[in-house]
Amino acid sequence: MRVRRKPSRPVIVSALILGLALAAAGLYWFQPWKLWTDETVREALPVAGAGTGEPKTLTKGRFISHEHSTRGTVRVLELPDGSRTLRLEGLDTSNGPALHVWVTDAPVKEGTGGWRVFDDGRYVDLGGLKGNKGDQNYALPASVDLDELTSVSIWCERFGVSFGAAQLHAVG
């Protein structure tokens, strides 16, 4: 007859510590609470300090959903002083870890085939997404050529996937 030995106390404690460390790392990496929390931003239309007049819309587009349901519009505005701003309006997407606003050269594709294309070519990272809902402005560097960088993605750097994207179309 074979007698089974119980695991020793140090083995049990070590296993519990390892399990807790893995759970903490998983929570940090995935940040699941962000799926149930919203950050709403309500920034006004930008105004240029030195110029007078209204911003001019250069390009615009409408978001489509990728990894997460995403709605809203995007416009590139030229301010009276010549500076440009990318404006998200009526944005409504999921929250998530490490979300950024990218202007890219990738075409916007529907379905899962469009989820991961935005880091394949050229892109400019305009910074972290300020909120997953509302209206927000991002300064557009003068070096961004709107004839070459023609789409915008809400990009999750943590998982390398687009939450949603918009193809930019010239206005006027």
What percent of the residues sit in helical stretches (DSSP H or I)?
10-25%
What structural category do the secondary elements indicate? Answer: mainly beta
Please tally the β strands and state the result. 10
| Number of helical elements | 1
> Runs with pLDDT <50, length 5+?
none
Summed over residues and divided by their number, the pLDDT gives a mean of 88
Strand content: 35-45%
Transmembrane segments: 12-30
Pfam family, one: DM13
Domain DM13: 56-169
Protein name: DM13 domain-containing protein
Give a description of the structure.
The chain folds into two domains: 7-36; 40-170, Immunoglobulin-like (Sandwich), CATH 2.60.40.200. Helix content is 13%, strand content 38%. The protein has one helix spanning 9-30, and strands spanning 40-42, 56-65, 71-78, 84-92, 99-104, 123-128, 133-140, 151-156, 161-167, 169-170. Strands 1, 2, 3, 4, 5, 6, 7, 8, 9 and 10 form a ten-stranded mixed β-sheet that branches.
Task: Describe the structure concisely for a colleague.
The protein is mostly beta strands. It is built from one helix and ten strands, in the order αββββββββββ. The mean pLDDT is 88.
Descriptive tags:
10 strands; mainly beta; 172 residues; ten-stranded mixed beta sheet; 1 helix; Immunoglobulin-like
